[in-house]
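help with these tokens:
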Amino acid sequence: MSDRGGVLGEVRDAVAAARERDPAADGVSSLGILAGWAGVQALLAHRAAHAMLNAGVPLAPRTIAYLSRAVTGVEIHPAARIGAGFFIDHGSGVVVGETAEVGDGVTLYQGVTLGGTGLEPGKRHPTVGCDVTIGAGAKLLGPISVGDGAKVGANTVVVEDVPAGATVVGNPGHQVRLNGKRVGEAGAAEG
């Protein structure tokens, strides 16, 4: 587990992220969120698997990841690095690869893949900055970087870096907004 207050801190963080970013959580108890939100369950299982992997515990991290995938439909490799306030909404089909790095406050929707593009050793999965939102079905592939505050539209395929504050859509993904302004508008390239 991270240094955010141990196990209880991890649970509080995961529940708070669900409350903050899912309108369906309004009025639901913390226990209800823990019991009913697959993305929260998958994240907490990942936190345990990641801590065990870092402690050198054999077999258990992969077993936890496998069981979590079977129960939640979310696959997060135990070695993936996930920041605070991470939230997976409607998690079914989400895949987060081994060398993926995800910043604080990131939201993923169903069917998102943070995947690799080959078998090469080393860094082969995306690095996602803080406060990024990635829409349903989006595929971010390879050792790309997605800057802080970026938005990736549903079903977008991203194989190149995304600047901070940008919105990308399409296949292949292309930038349509920067800092809330359409690309090409005055001030859109200013940061």
About this structure: Residues 179 and 191 are 7 Å apart (CA to CA). The chain has one domain: 6-182. The helical segments are 6-21, 30-36, 38-54, 60-72.
